[in-house]
């Protein structure tokens, strides 16, 4: 007789949670809920008759015995995956997902994080093209469209995954040369505009109570990523979306001279044709985007 083994689902949940040190991250990787991971781990603990994790706020730590157990079973999952691919028993050796997203979002938020998805899912090829075309015009050409929202389009399933606000940002050198202590100090600066976002600066100045302010100069670009690059290069002050400038602020390429007011902005959402919404690759990538959005909110909030 074959030896009795615990549930494979319970072992997968334990392996992912132990390797990542987080039930939440394990849930995102396996595309299940946090509660499902907790339940499977409890089932395995009951089966083994011993605890596997010590809970510490948002993180979990393996017990010494569980750490040794993970070291034994982890390589077995790798061998199982390799064997399945070698003998052609997986759904496909290479799978492709086509995504259309705005250029600035892709350049400043998606691409810096995409390697994490590729590391977890090396069999999935994500093809990204950038544009600002209306969602409805892209239905037949892409599996997923990323745009602002939330908006409703007939025949599409929409899900938000990343929130942001806008606030003034500039280079540290410019801030040092022409300090910005109050919003009124903007009179001495060049305001960087984007032609497709004509209301951003007027709306922020109105919120700051200085709607009639006249800056030293105005410089307008036709693409938003050029506006942000001009700010990095010290050419003036731009209205920076918090999600798209967080990495620059953390790295010291930009500074935010004022904590407020913050201008509300639309969320980033995924739009998928109803007939595709249940496809495994779409569910996989959507879940990953939402996990990254949650991680940004808790770890990179500006």
Automatic annotation (TrEMBL):
A biological process term (GO) from this entry: DNA-templated transcription
Keyword Flavoprotein attributed: no
Gene Ontology MF: a single term: sequence-specific DNA binding
Start and end residues of each HTH lysR-type domain: 6-63
Superkingdom of origin: Bacteria
Keywords, sorted A to Z: DNA-binding, Transcription, Transcription regulation
Pfam families on file: HTH_1, LysR_substrate
Protein family per UniProt: Belongs to the LysR transcriptional regulatory family.
Cited NCBIfam families: PRK11139.1
PANTHER family reported in the protein's UniProt record: HTH-TYPE TRANSCRIPTIONAL REGULATOR, HTH-TYPE TRANSCRIPTIONAL REGULATOR TRPI
Protein name stated in the entry: Transcriptional regulator
Biological source species: Caballeronia glebae
